[in-house]
Amino acid sequence: MAKLTELNANTTGTAYYSWAPGLVSFTMGTIALAMLVVQLDTFETVAYPMHELGESMLIGNGQLIGAEDIVYEPKSGVVYTGCHDGWIKRVTLNDSVADSVVENWVHTGGRPLGLAIDQFGDVFVADAYKGLLKVSKDGQLEVLTNKAEGMKIGLSDGVVVAKNGMVYFTDATYKCSYRDAMNDLLEGRPHGRLLSYDPSTKQTKVIVRDLYFANGVELSPEEDFVIFCETFMMRCHRYYLQGDKKGSVDVFANNLPGLPDNVRYDGDGHYWIAQPWDYSAYFKYTQGYPFVRKFFAFTLKHLHKMPHLTKFGGVLVLDLKGKPVGGYYDKEWEMTSCGTKIGNYLYLGSVSKPYILRIDLLQNPLTVAAS
After folding, report:
1. Which residues contact 104 (CB under 8 A, 6 or more apart)?
2. What is the mean pLDDT of residues 105-112?
């Protein structure tokens, strides 16, 4: 004699297979009838004239895959950006994005991330695999340094050049490479460094260590301090180059609404900090529990998958004192890695999108809060 649980299971399975096809047929028939009734209704619909909304605001769509950082050379009116395919590309901007011209300029043989231009037009590159590079304005590539204190630079990320020629750049993590950078987040230890390179002596120095993924860097208007981002701690520091605080570090901006990446000064009293991830509840939970991160590390290693931890990305705007005054965010802007203001436009780079996004700031003005 069959047990009661076995009898119920068998009966339920038989019943399901008997009525399931009928339910599907009934549902499809209902949908078809509804579509027919709607189609026969006398109310008419037509296509909107979408062309009147203007051109797309995407520059170099399909040609600029992973345009991580954007730097502008005002004399030539050219933008430089480093892409996933290893090319530093030059983009000639025009009022019409459709008329913007993209060209391959120099291939680094690695993955160019942060970019900076000095007063002579030479481009400095923080390459994730090659270290700190320099490309002369005529396209000659030179490796400046790939070690600091005898330790190889693991993931060169952001860079800025002072008027006196001193270069400041970050090693996001000396332990992990660009391909496995997520492991640095999951491990939860500070492997990042802020470095300096003196072109006159060709010396590389570590000026700040033990950072949780050191990222974008920028100088103050007077170049008396350098700002650098600590991505996994949602904050930015400043290292003093002059004055009574020379050689010391303090917090410039803390408790940011997202994870900071590259930072740009616009020459008009504001720093624009890209935020590829928001500080979502998912990320906060992941950050707070080591065992959760260990589980994610296991799935990443063996299944090559990670949960989606973010909801939106964008750009946060800070004043000269590090106070947030506004920003631009959207759920479609995840992985935004750079926000560069040029004239009346904001150009957004990304580590994953195949284009540069342009925002008209006159049509979308930044609402600056009163101080």
Report:
1. 87, 89
2. 98
